[in-house]
Amino acid sequence: MLFRTANLTQLDQFDEIIDVRTPAEFADDHIPGAINCPVLSDEERITVGTLYKQLSPFEARKVGAALVAKNIAHHIETRFHTHPKSWKPLIYCWRGGQRSGAMSIILSQIGWAAHKLEGGYKTYRRDVLDKLETLPGTFNYRVICGATGSGKSRLLDALAAQGAQVLDLEALAQHHGSVLGEWKRAQPSQKWFETQLLQTLQGFDPAQPVFVEAESNKIGRISLPTALVGTMHQSACVSLDTAREARIALLLEEYHHFLDAPDTLIARLQALHTFHGAKQLQHWNELIRDGEFHTLVDELLVLHYDPSYLRSQANHFVELPRARIISISDASSGKMREVARSLLV
Fold it and tell me: What gap in Å lies between CA 72 and CA 95, rounded to an integer?
């Protein structure tokens, strides 16, 4: 064998982890901390794949070999040339096959202790899914419940600032989990979300509680692992009972970007047509056009968000009837710091 191999348990033994897949494959998901040094670009991989199917494997390999050699040479000249002889890289591709093999052979021939990851990214991905089937169930969660605008995310921030273990699923999913919850940044891929979720869970101490916001099984287009959702549904709850005026003020603050983009807000609310019909949507559109945002938010809470919250929470979180209820008249950051301290006593 012209190259040495390593497995997932040995990741911390290497100076650098190199993902030689295409930039698109890397963006979709990768081993945390890895750098992307593709041996084929996205376009080149398509070209080689087309030749393989339409002409012959032999012709595809000739073209592919030339491209791979050129790209590896580029990485040696631009990224690796200053590394000392003691540099020890771990290299992986999709299945630990030809792409990572080519890079490993060349780097080994130079004199570096290059290793190839057994099974490649596919083995890593399987390991993530396997662990997400069991690891979420090893923690003692405290689920923060409360109607839309109660300040649940602010409370999580305050808890984290005071040293508590916090699982912020909305931050990982980059979405607030509602029709208006889309962030300015695009959501991550499902795979990258799961990679980050696993990494977060692995940093927790099972002997200490983990605070998490009550979520459905989806946040935007991201699906939560079944094991995590199931454990959360059985966990102890803390219920924020926030005054409605405070909730309206919080939502107007958090979604202020919509106030300057009425057309965007109107378009986003069209998703509620199925639930409320054309007449109600037209009324809300008029409120937006007239700048009556306080009234709009109030009506959205009463007619849409609160009924939806009551249905979803009552049907899923079995410990909610026994939740510790915290009533607050404002959802300011200062108030949330007080609430956080009371929860950590």
Answer: 19
**Beta partners for residue 90, in sequence order:** 17, 115
pTM of the predicted structure, to 2 decimals:
0.92
- Find the catalytic residue in 37, 93, 145, 237: 93
Residue 93 annotated to the active site: yes
Q: State how far the Cα of 228 lies from the Cα of 241, in Å rounded to an integer.
A: 25
Around Cβ 190, how many Cβ atoms within 10 Å? 14
DSSP secondary structure letter of residue 85: T
Per-residue pLDDT tens for 310-324?
Answer: 887 777 899 999 999
Chain segment 178-213, per-residue pLDDT in tens: 777 666 678 999 999 999 999 999 999 999 999 999
Residues 330-339, mean pLDDT to the nearest whole number: 94
Among candidate residues 103, 86, 84, the one with its CA nearest the CA of residue 14: 86
d(CA 219, CA 215): 7
Q: Where are the chain's structural domains?
A: 4-130, 133-343
Pairing verdict, β 141-146 and 210-213: parallel
Looking at CATH, the fold of the domain delimited by 133-343 is given as Rossmann fold (3.40.50)
Residue 5, helix vs strand vs coil: strand
Crossing angle of helices 244-254 and 293-300, in 10° steps, is 120
- Least confident range from 49-58, 114-123, 251-260: namely 251-260
What lies within 8 Å, CB to CB, of 227 at 6+ separation is: 132, 133, 134, 135, 136, 137
Q: What is the DSSP string of 131-171?
A: HHTTGGGGS-EEEEEE-TTS-HHHHHHHHHHTT-EEE-HHH
Under 8 Å between Cβ of 210 and 204? yes
CATH superfamily of 4-130: Rhodanese-like domain (3.40.250.10)
For 37-45, the CB contacts below 8 A with 24+ separation are 37/75, 37/79, 37/103, 38/71, 39/67, 39/68, 39/71, 39/72, 39/93, 39/99, 39/102, 39/103, 40/64, 40/67, 40/68, 40/71, 40/99, 41/71, 44/71
Task: In whole angstroms, give the CA distance from residue 131 to residue 174.
Answer: 22
